[in-house]
Design brief:
Blueprint (H helix, E strand, L loop, with lengths): L1 E6 L8 E4 L14 E6 L5 E11 L6 E11 L4 E14 L2
Antiparallel strand pairs: 1-3, 2-4, 3-4, 4-5, 5-6
Length: 92
Amino acid sequence: MFLLYIEVYGDYAGPGTYDLPTWQFGVGTNDVPKVGVSDYSTGALWQSVAGALTVTGSDGRSGTVSAILQHANGNGVAPGPTLSLTGRWRCR
């Protein structure tokens, strides 16, 4: 099982498109918009380094994502392979 993280804190201005730069800090930190995928059983985290997150729902709970992710190594991202994440998302 995998967990999808979507965060847009201080930059959130309602529905629209948000760039996904390389993270400055970890999940739960108010820095940049971010998307991450975590392996629930191992805790391994892949974090966005490029792409865009679009919020389409007026309540901020749905949209689309197109992101490039790299494996996080505790001090940022590790060089190597990337993952592509593209599709619709919705919070329940």
